[in-house]
């Protein structure tokens, strides 16, 4: 993320991360009617578009494929709503949150309890160099990378290659890896969550096959799921992988500072904010995850200084895909070329 050198001087931060937590607490209460409305205005068009795409199969599979794009956008929003359920921020009633989350987990092919736990680990450890590995993009420091063998370096370069990361990983993650409780294999309840989701998903797909054969699966379900997964992967990436993010060793790591300064504010047009359920206001979300997604813009309106922290435009975000190594001394994310020059 390219920011003018005098940017922070012109827009000083006046509060510590801990002070912001106290300010944000007043936004945490959800409105049950509003939350139900948000679920409805997302689920109903999603199902309607699915029905339209299915009907279009009798006209042209290309038309159905084209309709997979708007279906994917609504699917992305459903995933973000499920994400709020996992944080307990969508409804005051935790049981209601969990059942809405479990139901949406079948639609988003994401085992709810498993995802909720791994995502909680992500929130509680992001930016801590000693606690990498669950719920994050694998990121090495410059020193760690230089200490690796040539084969390890090649593997890391392949993994962090944008084509691999955004063309292959989303499909693998959502369609294959999430069929197993990876990272929590030893805990029974996460097997139950995963297998329960798999079984329900299998029933849904079997029903689609029984009434429509392979066509609705191949030309609607798979493309819309893959497109939504890819968009979600990109959003997750740019929310934490940018030049001025923050990573620290365990002894220097602080939860609230990492949440505020290690997450971006991704400035999106209003229609993309709607489809992504404001997840671009990620620094506020990470600092206070119990705030419902529809109240995040309210936070920025009331506290405009938050809108100047880690601000990233769409144009600026593309540069982040080239940044792959953390410089512990310079406290910034580097490209391979920059890391090589630094080492030299």
Low-confidence stretches: 1-12
How much of the polypeptide forms β-strand, as a percent range?
under 5%
What is the radius of gyration computed over CA atoms, rounded to a whole number of angstroms?
A: 21 Å
User: Any idea what the shape is?
Assistant: globular
Proportion of residues in helical segments = 55-70%
Number of strands: 5
Walkthrough of the structure:
The protein has 18 helices and 5 strands. The chain starts with 6 loop residues before the first helix and ends with a helix. Strand 4 and strand 5 form a beta hairpin. Helix content is 61%, strand content 3%. The strands form 2 sheets. It has a 3-stranded mixed beta sheet. Strands 2-3 form a two-stranded parallel ribbon. 39% of the residues are buried. The chain is globular. The chain is mostly helical and 344 residues long. The N terminus is likely disordered.
Please write out the topology.
Blueprint: H1 7-10, H2 17-24, H3 32-56, H4 61-87, H5 94-107, H6 112-125, E1 140-141, H7 142-147, H8 150-159, H9 162-167, H10 169-176, H11 188-212, H12 215-240, H13 255-261, E2 265-266, H14 270-275, H15 282-287, H16 296-302, E3 311-312, H17 314-317, E4 325-327, E5 332-334, H18 336-343
Parallel strand pairs: 1-4, 2-3
Antiparallel strand pairs: 4-5
Helix pairs in contact: 3-4, 4-5, 4-6, 4-12, 5-11, 10-12
């Amino acid at each position: 993320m390219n920011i003018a050198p005098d940017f922070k001087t012109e827009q000083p931060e006046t509060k510590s991360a801990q002070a912001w937590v106290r300010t944000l607490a007043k936004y945490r209460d959800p409105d049950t009617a509003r939350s139900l409305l948000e679920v409805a205005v997302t689920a109903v068009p999603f199902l309607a578009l699915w029905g339209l795409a299915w009907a279009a199969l009798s006209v042209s599979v290309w038309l159905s494929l084209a309709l997979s794009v708007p279906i994917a956008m609504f699917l992305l929003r459903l995933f973000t709503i499920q994400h709020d359920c996992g944080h307990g921020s969508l409804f005051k009633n935790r049981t209601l949150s969990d059942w809405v989350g479990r139901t949406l987990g079948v639609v988003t092919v994401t085992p709810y309890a498993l995802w909720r736990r791994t995502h909680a680990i992500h929130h509680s450890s992001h930016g801590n160099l000693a606690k990498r590995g669950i719920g994050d993009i694998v990121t090495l420091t410059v020193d760690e990378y230089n200490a690796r063998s040539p084969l390890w370096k090649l593997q890391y370069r392949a993994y962090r290659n944008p084509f691999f990361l955004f063309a292959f990983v989303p499909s693998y993650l959502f369609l294959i890896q999430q069929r197993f409780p990876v990272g929590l294999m030893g805990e029974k309840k996460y097997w139950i969550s995963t297998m329960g989701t798999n079984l329900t998903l299998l029933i849904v797909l079997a029903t689609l096959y029984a009434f429509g054969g392979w066509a609705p699966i191949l030309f609607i379900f798979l493309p819309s799921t893959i497109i939504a997964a890819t968009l979600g992967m990109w959003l997750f990436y740019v929310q934490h992988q940018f030049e001025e993010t923050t990573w620290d060793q365990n002894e220097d790591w602080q939860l609230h500072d990492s949440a505020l300064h290690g997450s971006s504010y991704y400035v999106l047009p209003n229609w993309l904010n709607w489809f992504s359920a404001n997840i671009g206001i990620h620094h506020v979300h990470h600092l206070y995850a119990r705030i419902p997604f529809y109240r995040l813009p309210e936070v920025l309106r009331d506290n405009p200084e938050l809108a100047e922290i880690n601000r990233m435009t769409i144009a600026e975000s593309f540069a982040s895909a080239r940044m792959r190594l953390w410089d512990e001394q310079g406290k910034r994310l580097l490209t391979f070329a920059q890391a090589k020059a630094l080492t030299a």
